[in-house]
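Operator note (shift B, R.M.): manual run for Interleukin 11 receptor subunit alpha requested after the automated queue skipped it. Running by hand, logging everything below so the morning shift can see what happened. Input copied straight from the record, untouched. If output looks odd, do not overwrite the archive copy; leave it for review.
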Amino acid sequence: MISFSRCSEAQKCPVSRRGETHYHVGRGRQCGKMNSLASCLSRVIVLLAVTAVSLSVSSSKWGEEGVLYGKIGGNITLMCNASNDSLVAEWRFNGTPDISWGFFTDIGHLELPHAHHSATGNYSCYSHSGDLLSSVLLRMGYPPGTPSVFCRASDYENFSCFWKSSVETLLPTRFTASYRSRNHMIGVCLQEPVRPNMCSVRKSEFWSSYQMNITEENPLGSSFRLLDVTMQSIVKPDPPENLLVEPIPFAPRRLRVSWDYPSTWPKEPHFQLKFRVQYRPVQHPLWSEVETANLSDIITDAFAGMEHVIQVSAKDFLDAGNWSDWSVEVRATPWTREIDITTPTSEETLTDLGEPQIDNPIDVHTDPLEKVAILISLGIFAFVVLALFLIMGVLIWVRVRKKGMENGMKPDFLSVIHMKALPKVQIL
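Run finished. Output pasted below as returned.
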């Protein structure tokens, strides 16, 4: 059972009356002479003891005067500020006496067992004469859960940690953040009022490790998260900047893409970035992707005449950490040939326009795969032509030889050659 006393002045004690259907209290004033000082002090001690063991209600240090905080599902006890010679007459919730979720005790307390969030509101107690004795605003909620935390570094000199409550407490909440470095140095992670769920560690040590402590606190308690952080594992650059996409003249399937380093990345030669470019036609859902270490690249397989969406991201050149978020989208369309629509539409003109007239510059900027395909086609064509010529030559030779054998020319010819080759002695 949880209780809280709102006796704000010395010597004020709650009193009660038994057997009342409605909830009655007397007006708060100092303990009268009717009761002994010991009796009054004993009541105060009991109330303080009950308050000390309270786990469901808190009021204190959150700067809201006259506000109590209760845990949803807990048992709440509200007590009226009244002196010994005053009797509790009635409790009201937001001005009405109907409090079906609570009951009035013999000593004038209002009990709210297993209180729900709907119990949030203003509770007040009144005397027999209808005078207001005291009032309190009860706010129901939950104690904090363990916060979820992640950290990232946009460069190798600073890093930031971000957190989010794991429980919607419905109550005012605050966070404190601190860290301990590898050499056991303790520091405060700096928070900015405009970004309450973030803190930053400046001038961090390269290749060092830190232990972060993020504590969430509300009127019902506190919870914390410890997170071990190493710089090389949390590096995540900001997206590249100044993305520019341009068509290439006379190249209907190419786009030139260029960008700059993120301004937050240190401009030092040993801290390099690599990049990836993703692109797709606006009408297509699937992305194509290429990687490069340069600050520009040429897309060689764009769809002719179609608008494309292009984005770029960055990562540490040595593959430490994570890829950055994608840059802002930029749209561009490859170069297309302009057609003069003002030309007369006579039959001769249409015939002339229909003839393919391709300038040499287009051949220069064709796709490498197209060049390979053309070379293969030319090689196959040359092989076929050579084979045809060879076959024709063999057929002609066979035909001539056969004809010579039929006419008897070949034996005489061979005999003459043989006679010339023999020595004169053998001839004689």
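Quick read of the result: The longest strand covers residues 132-141. The longest helix spans residues 368-407.
Leaving this for review. - R.M.
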